[in-house]
Write a structure and sequence with these properties.
Blueprint: H1 2-13, H2 16-35, H3 39-68, H4 70-77, H5 83-113, H6 117-143, H7 147-175, H8 182-190, H9 193-205, H10 212-252
Amino acid sequence: MRKIVKYVLGDIIRNKMVLVYTILLFVISLSVFNIETNTSKGILSLLNIILLIVPLTCIIFSTIYIYNSSEFIELLVSQPIKRKTIWYSLYFGLVLSLSLAYIIGIGLPALYYFPNAKGAMILIVGLFLTWVFVSIALLIAGSSRDKTKGIAIAIVSWLFFAIFYDILVLFILFQFQDYPLEGAMIVLSFLNPIDLSRIQLLLQIDAAAIIGYTGAVFKIFFGRGLGILICILCMCAWFLVPLWLSVKIFQKRDI
């Protein structure tokens, strides 16, 4: 596994898209932190960017990489290596490279400007999003042989989590405003890793005014500390379950 991870990691780090991704995050983070003198506003401005760019880059790049590595994967499958080992190696190679890009691009500037729990939470939120959307990308790529279809599914998945989910929440709130919806909102928040990440960071900085309806319900039900813990556990499930499913699919796949 170590040799495969090392190869994938080296291959991705040399990729120009990863370099562009790293530089883009670094420039954005420095710009936001230097423009905003208010700590909370700076973190919130950066959060909005992170919640869009990180999931989009991770899911699209990882999906394309898996499809473009089909010949390499076929070669590995022909060797006496367990399929589970091959798939996990691809995942760890992708995750390590994209996580490194995020740490350099946003994590280090965040910790430099905010050497406290807020800066650490920015780092944690971005890393979780990276792990989750790489995991989802592997599930998509493992489920569909068609590259075009796989990339389309990846884009639609990102659109749902980043945009359509909020529209769905607003629709439910307006249509069923006469009913108690607190429980339903908590369940809906569990179904979106981007919303969980947003709630997790906003609970950390205690931004009550902009935490949103789902975040407010989350805080009322679980409180600040327990709410953050539940968000972290849910994010762990979000990258472990799709990864496990993708491994099962890859093991049964006829290559």
